[in-house]
Design goal:
The protein has about 425 residues and is mainly beta. It contains 2 helices and 34 strands. The strands form 9 sheets. It has a 5-stranded antiparallel sheet with strand order 1-27-26-25-24, with no helix packed on it. The protein has a 5-stranded antiparallel sheet with strand order 4-5-34-33-32, with no helix packed on it.
Length: about 425
């Protein structure tokens, strides 16, 4: 790519890979670095606050004892306050028991907090749904529900759920259920599965189901108007369907396909089932999330696994496939845009270790870290917290997911010990006026 981060690439365009940025500091540039790097004082000590990808540098993770359950702690490098909010192997409250191996939130692109952030949801390893206070993180109550549910983005009392042949609203506090749609023509309803979110107004979702012939289909449904939109026959797509979801604006249906060689392709449809885009490149992008950007366009932000931007963080526009390169080659693992009340930033989970970065000085200078990155291509960043999650298995991945207003972010960690119990942690984020 004969340009820099932020350049747009039209769908299907094949160009040379973006030159990887060099983050080492030559002596000649040391004075410039000192002038452009901000210093902030936190807890009586100075820490460096990188504010752009251009001046970011690798920060070694210092030794730190694992924080006790619900005891406040401070990140030694960034001064960020955080709290361990689950305790694997322990009964958090009557009927609320954390599994010994892990006790964590669902996933990076699944909303962990409700709309007003009064409740925080922990699912993995909790024998159902464990609800915590959204600010103190104290355990409140437990519910057992075998269905797929996601928080309503505007109504803090409600979750949107699908099960069997129905869509319904559910109020976890009162355990009340309100039917929305029941079908005699479809069965095996799924919300995604697992990676579905409603539109940003909470009125439209995509359901994956089987029709009367047993074929796998996906369709959009409008909750308020009770309108079911036309089926998309998923059997006609290349590969096996992984999930389908509605875009934040509600205009598009995004479907993820798994190929026989385990690569991934994506399809974008209009709500009426008309094909808009097919992205045949592998995972370009994936492990990400969707948002409406500053241009008013639905975009997918995630990690590319194909040329010309392999292992870069990219933004891709749903309507035409135009790509914006946001961050260089690196250890980016997941991207979340659940900060729906503070759009314009993506929360990135970086994995890896210091030895890998020491051996590759051109890579993005982050490992085991949560970094917020502007999605406008400017390279502006906010380094939040170091996760201390060493590679072990799926459950030990950090899967950082922000609160709706972006002032909190939850992540998982085995605290530097492969195979150790995996707990959830929440960091609090201070934002200056933008």
């Amino acid at each position: 790519m004969a340009g820099r981060l932020g350049r747009e690439i039209k769908s299907g365009e094949r160009v040379m890979s973006t030159p990887r940025w060099r983050f080492g500091l030559p002596i000649a540039g040391l004075i410039l670095f000192l002038l452009t790097t901000l210093a902030v004082v936190v807890a009586g000590r100075e820490v460096l606050a990188d504010d752009t990808l251009a001046n970011a540098h690798v920060l070694a993770i210092p030794q730190m004892p694992e924080p006790a359950y619900l005891e406040p702690a401070t990140d030694p490098n960034f001064g960020t306050s955080f709290t361990r909010v689950t305790d694997p192997g322990r009964q958090l409250a009557p009927g609320m028991v954390c599994a010994q191996a892990y006790c964590t939130h669902r996933y990076s692109s699944s909303q962990a907090w409700n709309a007003d952030q009064s409740l925080l949801l922990v699912v993995n390893g909790c024998s159902g749904l464990c609800f915590l206070d959204g600010h103190s993180y104290k355990p409140l109550f437990h519910r057992t529900i075998p269905n797929e549910c996601e928080w309503h983005p505007l109504d803090p009392k409600q979750m949107i759920c699908v099960s069997g042949n129905e869509i319904y609203l559910w109020a976890p506090v009162t355990d009340e259920k309100t039917p929305v749609f029941t079908s005699s023509e479809y069965k095996e309803f799924q919300f995604g599965p697992y990676k579905g979110n409603p539109s940003r107004d909470g009125d439209r979702l995509v359901v994956r189901a089987r029709n009367q012939e047993g074929a796998l289909v996906a369709f959009a449904y409008d909750i308020t108007e009770k309108i079911k939109h036309p089926d998309i026959d998923l059997s006609k797509l290349v590969g096996e369907n992984g999930y389908c979801g509605i875009s934040p604006s509600g205009k598009y249906i995004f479907c993820w396909q798994v190929m026989p060689d385990e690569t991934n392709q994506a399809y974008v449809f209009a709500v009426d089932g008309t094909l808009i885009q097919h992205w045949p490149e592998n995972h370009r992008p994936g492990h990400g999330d969707m948002v409406v950007d500053a241009d008013g366009e639905d975009v997918y932000v995630g990690i590319s696994k194909d040329d010309p931007d392999k292992y870069h963080v990219i933004k891709r526009r749903l309507k035409d496939g135009v790509v914006t390169d946001l961050a260089p080659f690196g250890e980016g693992q997941h991207a979340s845009l659940r900060n729906i009340g503070r759009p314009g930033w993506v929360f990135l989970t970086y994995t890896g270790n210091q030895a890998e970065l020491d051996g590759n000085p051109n890579w993005a200078p982050f490992y085991q870290e949560v970094v917020a990155l502007r999605i406008d291509g400017s390279g502006e960043i906010k380094r939040i917290v170091q996760t201390r999650d060493v590679k072990s298995d799926y459950w030990s991945e950090a899967h950082a997911s922000p609160s709706p207003d972006g002032t909190q972010v939850i992540w998982s960690s085995n605290w530097g010990k492969a195979g150790a119990p995996v707990a959830d942690y929440v960091a609090r984020i201070a934002w200056h006026d933008e």
